[in-house]
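question for whoever is on the cluster today: can someone run the full assembly for these? two chains, 413 residues total. i dont have access anymore since they changed the login thing
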Amino acid sequence: MPTDRLIACHECDLLEQMEPVPAGGDARCRRCGAVLYQHKHDSLDRTLALALAALILFAVANSFPFLALEMQGLETRTTLITGVRVLYEEGCWEVAALVLLTAVLVPGIRVLGFLYLLLPLRLNRIPPGTPLLFRAILSLQNWSMVDVFMLGILVSVVKLAGMATIVPGIAVWAFALLIFALAGMNAMLDPRIVWDRLGPHS
Amino acid sequence: MRPAHLIAAREGLLSCHSCQLVARPPPARGQVLLRCPRCGARLHRRKPHSVARTWALVIAAAIFYIPANLLPMTVVTSLGNTQADTIMSGVIYFIQHGEWYIALVIFTASILVPVLKLLILAFLLISVQARSRWRPYDRTRMYRIMEAVGRWSMVDVYVVTILVALVNLGNLATMQAGPGAVFFAAVVVTTMFAAMTFDPRLIWDPVETDR
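^ ran it for u. tokens below:
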């Protein structure tokens, strides 16, 4: 049995023949219903566009004032990583490291990784280190928690509302838009556009 | 008689968990380390030692869950008064201030989701070990949903981080992350790893073995 047209469900191991799927459609496992693969229209260009947008938003979110606290005429500005710094200085480095990783480093690495892989691919070149890097980027998806962080901001603002006025800075708006850029980037990506360049499977 | 379904592992095929390539391993048996010819990921029939590793992570998370809930998440010192807040007292604070929807968010993300995650994983592990054939489709869906919502438990860790920054720098009070925050972060990370190590294909392995 030739294996190049076969796909095995990653959730129940059912073996199926890969069939072409219309643009925008997906192929689901007959037995357990898991999504096997999707055909995403214009995947490379759209993913690339959203990754570029995400890069700009990420830069803004990390360099401009984030939340400011106003009390008795005094305004205190914080940036995205102020909390990480304060936690680290208090000796709570485990939590500081986790927050830095999931809210800043992993999202940043994923965006840069996408650009590093997809820009040359757009020009029909395969950049060195593609298999390892793309694998890492795919498996890190769950650890990029920009959206969860945003929920944390909302909860914090409600909690402090009685004590002081919280003024959202430019970075908060960039951060909110970043959620959509990252979600779009993940949703537009069809991993097969990378894997198919590397070898078997048509 | 042909089986109704072809299963990759029973056909002697391995599928790459990273790039989905289906590969036929060379006949040489034993301790050979197989890698995907396309993406280089380790190939295995099933995630290695999935049941044992997932159990270890589930038990670790269940142990961390106790101090995470009993020890304070935050310690606030203001004008000589010290107030320690646990996850539950934070939820109660929001209820008392009429912000019941925020209370619901925190209760769901910080208390309900981790407990449900641990119960579901324990249930899936026991059912796999008993080679149960009970509703594999629904058990797979349980796994899928649990894996997708787990990361939202992190919200309380972020709340602590943001509050610490604003409260300390704004000179509202002195606020420190308590030991509960470290244990709670450990619960979130270990349960996420537990969901990753569990192999849902084990649910389906006992199904249709007798034709």
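summary bc i know u wont read the tokens: The radius of gyration of chain B is 22 Å. Chain B touches chain A through 72 residues (CB under 8 Å).
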